[in-house]
Amino acid sequence: MKLSYKFLIYVSFSLLIFCLIIFTVIDVSLKKYTRHHDIIHVPSLMGLSLSSAKDTLTKYQLTFSIIDSAAYNPNYNRGSIIGHTPKVGSQVKPGRKIYLTLNPVTIHYTLLPDLKNKSLRHGISLLESHAFRVGDLHYVNYFAKDLIRFLKVNNEVVEKGDSLPKFTVIDLYVGNGHENNIKVPDLTGLTFSQIKRKLNNYSLNLGLSNFDIDIVDTLNSVVYKQDPLTQEKAPLGTYVSVWLKDSID
Q1: pTM of the predicted model as reported, rounded to 2 decimal places
Q2: Cα four-point dihedral sign 82, 84, 88, 94
Q3: How far apart are alpha carbons 96 and 69 in whole angstroms?
Q4: Which CATH number fits domain 181-245: 3.30.559.10, 3.40.50.300, 3.30.10.20, 3.40.720.10?
Q5: Residue 129: is its pLDDT beyond 50?
Q6: In the CATH hierarchy, which fold is given to the domain comprising 109-175?
Q7: Torsion of CA 87, 90, 94, 96, to 10 degrees
Q8: What is the mean pLDDT of the chain?
């Protein structure tokens, strides 16, 4: 009986050691396979030519895709990088795709449509159909909620008929309808490309976008957390921060 007891202890101890060894091997293998310890800080690409940006990203084991061109920025050379997502300093893994925004080589101008006293949704559609981009929403005291009162570009008022570069970002100043707060919608499961439009439709703005380190495709990443939370009351024009990952489990 004594020998049997000692034998059982020996077998149990051996099994424990065996399991620990197996667990360690699997853990190390998985971390090696997923490059768990390989973290890259996104370098600044601002102002670089496309070829220089490509060389830099290759050195950092990153890939890239050109999203589009933006409104012409005279502070940068034509065709150079004037924005990228994820931003400089973000932590990513090797192979991550960085989305680049270029300063246009050729500047195309278009006339600003008449948006005054148009509804917010109608105004957004008009801007996008004229190749402009919607910036932030700012609320002013006016009896009609979400009625556009005036527009600004770089803090300067612009009006219908003004000739502006395509892709210019335009901030909208709209009526608050004498309301103060709005309930924050649920953004869970929406892709990065969908959240700004939904927030704007709820009289809110997109704040900080926090991408998980394991994300492969930024544009198709989905929201799993937000601040303020769903159904919380927030002032009109509040900036809602989001956290995104590759998929909702």
Answers
A1: 0.79
A2: negative
A3: 21
A4: 3.30.10.20
A5: yes
A6: Trypsin Inhibitor V; Chain A (3.30.10)
A7: -40
A8: 88
